[in-house]
Amino acid sequence: MRAVVVTEYGVLPVVQEVAEPEVAPGSVVLKVEATGLCRSDWHGWMGHDSDIVLPHVPGHELAGTVAAVGAGVDGWQVGDRVTTPFICACGTCEQCLAGNQQVCPNQLQPGFNYWGSFAEYVAIPFAQVNLVRLPDAMDFGTAAGLGCRFATSFRAVRQVGQVQPGETAVVLGCGGVGLSAVMIAAAAGARVIAVDTNPAALELARQYGAAETLTDASELRGVDITFDALGSNELVQQALRALRPRGRHVQIGLLPDGVQLDVGRLIGQELQWLGSHGMPAHAYPEMLELVAAGNLNPAALITRTISLDETPAALAALSHGTPAGVTVITP
What cofactor is needed (predicted)? Predict the structure, then answer.
């Protein structure tokens, strides 16, 4: 199969022929129909993830058709249209049995722990608890974005942040995660303020329901909840200063360089710092129902579709900023 292969961190990957993944017991192999280009892929390419072993194939948000079914996987067959969370949980540990697959200590992530979806085929471990059947009306490009950015934002806004109608929610960073959060928070009835330095991203944020857009949040005060959807120490500081007493901050973006916190203010104002990491497969039905009903429109987030051959350059270009909207790759 053809795949994007990283041989050195920070060096332009190449598209080359590699062996197709073999189907193992408990797993399936998918023919990748669409996969998203995400900033987390850039972090991996830059060497920010210790789980990656070179040579490596990135890609972790995907949709496709089942190409092979391993022993012990029931209810799935070749040709089924599916997506999967980027966190492939084991399904048997204490956290999984409690429904918290997104923090499974035995999780495997395509594109990080093993070769991912910037390829024609990808393996999905623990398939019984991680496959999500796609509605017939949903195209693969839309479904690919659900596995990381949209599903991650859905859980961050609705389940972790528990945004309520009438609240003011600030989304800092309007890449794919941030724009998803804007759309989902607005649909939940919040007054959304979107923050980004990219005018094109802010225009999309307005289209997706933001009541106000800003290039800087340093003067904001008294808001109910903030989301760092990018991963920046500077944005975290703006987010925490913007909160009212007993406000909530949800951290979605990765912080590879760490962050400084005014712990005294966290304590004195009784602020909440909440982490949010993905969403388990069993939680997808609520999100899919809202999409089917027209309350959410993840397809609108897609602004660019590229080929596998265009992917190395697009990945490297993330070093200079994130393009507005979501980029989907069709292998």
Answer: Zn(2+)
CATH 3.40.1180.10 fits 2-150+278-330, yes or no: no
Q: Which residues contact 66 (CB under 8 A, 6 or more apart)?
A: 28, 29, 30, 31, 76, 77, 78, 79, 80, 82
Q: Is pTM, for the whole model, over 0.85?
A: yes
Q: What would the two tokens of residue 243 be?
A: 């909160």
Compute the distance between CA of residue 330 and CA of residue 264 in angstroms, rounded to an integer: 48
What is the separation of C-alpha 89 from the centre of its chain, rounded to a whole number of angstroms?
Answer: 16
Would you write out the chain's pLDDT as a tens digit for each of its 331 residues? 999 999 999 999 999 999 999 999 999 999 999 999 998 899 899 998 889 999 999 999 999 999 999 999 999 999 999 999 999 999 999 999 999 999 999 999 999 999 999 999 999 999 999 999 999 999 999 999 887 889 999 999 999 999 999 999 999 999 889 999 999 999 999 999 999 999 999 999 999 999 999 999 999 999 999 999 998 899 999 999 999 999 999 999 988 788 888 889 999 999 999 999 999 999 999 999 999 999 999 999 999 999 999 999 999 999 988 788 899 999 9
Fold identical between 2-150+278-330 and 162-275?
A: no
CB 327 within 8 A of CB 51: no
Three-state secondary structure readout of 80-97: CEEECCCCECCCCCHHHH
The separation between the first and the last C-alpha atoms of the chain, rounded to the nearest angstrom, is 10
Nearest to 147 by CA among 109, 105, 179, 115: 109
Q: Which fold has domain 162-275?
A: Rossmann fold (3.40.50)
